[in-house]
Structure formats: structure tokens, C-alpha cells
Design goal:
Elements lengths: L1 H10 L2 H13 L3 H10 L10 H11 L1 H14 L12 H9 L5 H16 L3 H6 L1 H21 L1
Length: 149
């Protein structure tokens, strides 16, 4: 992920940076999310407005957000938390909201599905409640995407 972030930074790709930042925020690392909140003009990071705040940061404070992403990915050793309980509830909440752009939601679903495929049966079993809630929201989002296309 760090290599991808560096390519994104070199290309000045604010859309890719937004997607990476949204994913990393969803990993739920308290110290990293606190640092991200400080980038939002000192007003804090309201969970209700995370997508619009990240889009704005990607456009207006690109280098600072890119650095936050690289540092946060570094905390994760370039990966992400193995246990879905660290990020799946936040992702499910974000996908339930009506203001999530469809393309961003589909991208997040693709990343989450890939991450869930790497989990052991024991981890999946322990997180079955989170996974069922995610699957419901995922199905609704993908149905909207299919209807749109």
C-alpha cells in the first residue's frame, strides 16, 4: 500500500488519495484518526461528514493528506488490521449513509471483500455479526450500482 501511495502522490492523483485515505480512516487507528482530525481545519473530524472532508482534503491539502496516508499505512506495516472487527463496523456504517458516492462505495466494498478473503475461518466466525451487517449493506450498494449501469 505504501508503494501505491507514493505513486499516487507522485502523480498528484487526488481521487486515488481520497480512496486510500477513506480506507485507512476506516481501519480505526485512534492515533492516526486523531492526527487526521487535526488536518480538518482544527474543527475535528465529524464521522457524519468523513467522505466530504476527505475529498476536500485530497483537493486542498494533498501533500499533507498523502503524508498522513503514508504514515498510517506504515503503522499497519503497509497492510491493514487482520481482524475485521477493527474496521468492518466503521465501513458498514459509512456505506449505510446516503451521501456516500456510489463509486467510492463500490471501491470500498472491493477492498473489504479482498480483505475478508484473507481471513481465517476462525476470524470470520468470530466476526459473523459484523460480516452479516456488512453483507446486507454491501448487497444494497451493489444493487444500486447495477441499477445505475
Amino acid at each position: 500500500m505504501i508503494a501505491a501511495l507514493r505513486r499516487c502522490q507522485a502523480a498528484g492523483d487526488s481521487d486515488a488519495l481520497y480512496f486510500c485515505a477513506a480506507w485507512l480512516h476506516g481501519c480505526g487507528i485512534p492515533a492516526a484518526n486523531s492526527a487526521l482530525a487535526s488536518l480538518v481545519d482544527g474543527d475535528g473530524l465529524d464521522t457524519e461528514a468523513i467522505d466530504s472532508a476527505l475529498r476536500q482534503l485530497a483537493r486542498q491539502r494533498f501533500d499533507e493528506l498523502a503524508q498522513w496516508c503514508i504514515e498510517t499505512a506504515g503503522v499497519l506495516n503497509g497492510g491493514m488490521p487482520r481482524d475485521p472487527s477493527a474496521w468492518l463496523p466503521g465501513l458498514t456504517y459509512a456505506l449505510r449513509r446516503d451521501d456516500v458516492p456510489l463509486s467510492a462505495g463500490v471501491h470500498r466494498v472491493a477492498l473489504a471483500d479482498m480483505a475478508l478473503l484473507t481471513c481465517s475461518d476462525a476470524v470470520l466466525s468470530r466476526n459473523s455479526v459484523h460480516i452479516r451487517a456488512y453483507q446486507t449493506v454491501r448487497g444494497e450498494l451493489l444493487a444500486r450500482a447495477a441499477a445505475r449501469n
